[in-house]
Amino acid sequence: MSSRERILGRVRRALADVPKDDTPYEQAVAREYLREHGQRTVAETLDLLAENLADYRAVVHRTDAAGLAGVVAGLLSSRGASSVLVPPGLDEAWLARTGVTRVADRAESTPHELDRVDSVITACAVAVAETGTIVLDGSPDQGRRRITLVPDHHICVVRATQVVPSVPYALGRLDPTRPLTWISGPSATSDIELDRVEGVHGPRTLEVVLVE
Predict the structure, then answer these.
(1) Buried b / exposed e across 143-154, counting CB within 10 Å, b at 16+?
(2) Which helix or strand (DSSP H or E) is residue 4 part of?
(3) DSSP state letter for 160
(4) Where are the alpha helices (DSSP H) in 59-179?
(5) Between the CA of residue 148 and those of 51, 104, 107, 136, 177, what are the distances in Å?
(6) In 10 A of CB 118, how many CB atoms?
(7) Where are the beta strands (DSSP E) in the chain?
(8) Is the dihedral of CA 146, 139, 33, 27 positive or negative?
């Protein structure tokens, strides 16, 4: 028996007498805290998201739906990308003007294969203006978590309707049973002598296309 099986066995035994319809304790907790800091218009909320994303050193591009395909094509071209990793549910219209090789999100892809891809493009589940955070939940237009961690360049498309003011609003939109990935700017660490190093745990470059 493996360590994993032993631990899971202990969990099952501990939960053996818990009714299946038992209400989790956290659902009974009162959550009457402040949900956002001040009232903002939709335009102000989008501006705040763009500002905070930039503070985290993400590169923000703003466009409308008609200009999205052109922006995506321009971003890939400016990096000289020859391949882009594409989740299965991504809107084909977003890539209509690109001439790069599309790489499918496959379960059997190795880390080395993903590392050879120049860029990855995804949608998102929600974006939080007050924290400059983008949340992915593994939906078909976002793909597996690892495809946004291994390639060095991530293009994330955020639609205005997906932007919320604060984290409490974001939690209300998200399914906690899904694999949530919270992204605030490109991967970075300052663990060694407080020197910022980017690209350690994920993409070195995060470009966000905000579609208004």
Answers:
(1) bbeebbbbbbbb
(2) helix 3-14
(3) G
(4) 68-78, 111-115, 167-173
(5) 22, 13, 14, 9, 20
(6) 18
(7) 59-63, 83-86, 101-104, 119-122, 126-128, 133-136, 153-159, 163-164, 181-183, 188-189, 197-198, 205-211
(8) negative
Comparing CA positions, the residue from 59, 62, 40 lying closest to residue 158 is 62
Q: How many CB atoms lie within 10 A of CB 193?
A: 5
Q: Determine contact, residues 166/39, Cβ cutoff 8 Å.
A: no
Amino acid at 185: G
Contact 139, 148 (CB under 8 A): no
For CA atoms 158, 161, 162, 167, the dihedral sign is positive
pLDDT value at residue 116: 93
Phi/psi at 29 (5° precision) = -75, 130
Do 191 and 66 form a contact (C-beta atoms < 8 A)? no
Distance in Å from the first CA to the final CA of the chain: 54
Tell me the residue length of the chain: 212
Residue 103 forms beta bridges with which residues?
A: 85
pLDDT in tens, the chain (212 residues): 789 999 999 988 888 887 776 565 555 667 777 788 888 999 999 999 999 999 989 999 999 999 999 999 999 999 999 999 999 999 999 999 988 999 999 999 998 999 999 999 999 999 999 999 999 999 999 999 999 999 999 999 999 999 999 999 999 999 989 999 999 877 666 666 667 666 566 788 999 999 99
